[in-house]
Specification:
The protein is mostly helical. Helix content is 68%, strand content 0%.
């Protein structure tokens, strides 16, 4: 068997595995979209992705847009963005500063701080929710959107700090030295030299923060108890009726509409996401 034939066989096997994994990952989304046009009987009565001919219904989307008796989906979108935009900004800025200090400076206790960052990666998020809840309850920030993003301005997400540190290791330190020779201080070096070079990883951090924030159900459930502060994740839960038959078609339609902004942002920034993942695994 020639080397060319082996390469073709290996490529065929790789692409076959990729196609199988891709179909397995995207199938739930396609099934959800198809089920948003079905009635409950068709959803659970057959295994077809899309409803039978003549059984399509488009009423679920108008009903899903009116998520509750008092507010529509636009209201819950805006409530979600009221905490999500500050969270993205705070996470990107604070994690960048923390990663810059750890990766570019030598100071006493640096290894201890880096070890702490690594250890906190293994801790469940609930371990941090409890002290944050107690702190916000003491200072009177419960039932405010600030309780969902204020702590993100202090570099608390160790996963993103570690990601940015790994990406910074691919940037030559000669750039820092050249900036210092030109008279730039640490802040100027960070803003003018590092931030442009970090653009792929910073966009990735912002993208992941946005995606995880859209899916955050536990945080708003704990910190926001007033109906006027209800966000999209909580509103979707309200479509599940504990005492009557849940209209799953309406639920799937609402879930798909809630997913559209995340999909648009993800595919718009997918190039930067791939670049950052590729570069984060490299070391200078």
């Amino acid at each position: 068997m020639s080397a060319l034939t082996k390469r073709r066989i290996n490529s065929g096997i790789r692409y076959t595995i990729l196609v199988i994994v891709g179909v397995a990952l995207i199938y739930p989304l396609i099934w959800m979209i198809g089920s948003s046009f079905k009635w409950n009987l068709d959803i659970f009565g057959n295994l077809n992705i899309f409803p039978p001919v003549g059984a399509w219904t488009f009423d679920h989307y108008p009903n899903a847009w009116q998520l509750s008796m008092t507010n529509n989906m636009a209201f819950y979108y805006m409530n979600t963005l009221r905490f999500l935009i500050p969270r993205v900004i705070g996470t990107v800025i604070s994690c960048t500063i923390a990663a810059f200090a750890i990766s570019r400076f030598n100071f006493k206790g640096k290894k201890i701080i880096l070890t702490t960052v690594m250890v906190t990666l293994l801790m469940p998020e609930l371990a941090f929710r409890i002290p944050i809840f107690m702190f916000y309850n003491e200072i009177g920030l419960m039932n405010t959107f600030a309780s969902l993003y204020l702590h993100d301005f202090f570099g608390v997400n160790s996963f993103f700090v570690f990601m940015i540190i790994q990406f910074m290791r691919t940037i030559p330190k000669e750039l820092d030295e050249a900036a210092a020779i030109d008279g730039a201080g640490p802040i100027r070096t960070l803003i003018s030299v590092m931030v442009p070079a970090l653009r792929p990883i910073l966009i990735t951090v912002g993208l992941l923060t946005f995606m995880w924030g859209m899916n955050d159900f536990q945080g708003p459930l704990i910190f926001l108890r007033m109906p006027e502060y209800r966000v999209l994740a909580l509103a979707l839960r309200g479509l599940i009726d504990d005492y009557a038959v849940t209209q799953f078609g309406v639920l799937f339609a609402a879930a798909f509409m809630a997913l559209i902004p995340t999909l648009v942002i993800f595919f718009s920034c997918s190039r930067y996401f791939v670049d950052s993942v590729t570069s984060s695994g490299m070391k200078e």
